[in-house]
């Protein structure tokens, strides 16, 4: 199990605390420092069953600079979105837990973290 976090994020700290309290074994990836590649983002999206715009933080300043709200959300634009996430990792929603069973969850709630724990 791996968790992508931003240590400054309260949701990330909460997820880590819950994982620790449950005795889970996991690896922390500080994705702002260890930036995921486009291939890694594609893999996580497949595991999540989501599209890149579904995990994009559109309220970030860089999202506004890129005018992401005007970008098409279709199969033809998917690569553009993934590239933006790789170039600007702050846009990636957090925390993301990749579970041992090959799935992943955006772990912003206690329920989502507990769901990931059942997939160990």
Automatic annotation (TrEMBL):
It holds the Pfam family ArsC. Signal peptide: none annotated. The keyword Nucleotide-binding does not apply. The keyword Kinase does not apply. It comes from the Bacteria. GO terms for molecular function: arsenate reductase (glutaredoxin) activity. Keywords: Oxidoreductase. Belongs to the ArsC family. PANTHER family: ARSENATE REDUCTASE. This is Arsenate reductase. It comes from Streptomyces olivochromogenes.
């Amino acid at each position: 199990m791996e968790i992508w976090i931003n240590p400054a994020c309260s949701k990330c700290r909460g997820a880590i605390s819950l994982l620790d309290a449950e005795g889970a074994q996991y690896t922390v990836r500080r994705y702002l420092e260890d930036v995921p590649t486009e291939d890694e983002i594609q893999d996580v999206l497949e595991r999540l069953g989501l599209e890149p715009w579904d995990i994009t933080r559109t309220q970030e300043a860089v999202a506004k600079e890129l005018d992401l709200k005007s970008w098409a959300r279709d199969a033809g634009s998917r690569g553009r979105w993934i590239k933006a996430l790789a170039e600007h990792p702050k846009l990636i929603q957090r925390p993301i837990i990749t579970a041992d069973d090959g799935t992943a969850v955006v772990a912003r709630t206690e329920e989502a973290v507990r769901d990931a724990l059942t997939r160990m």
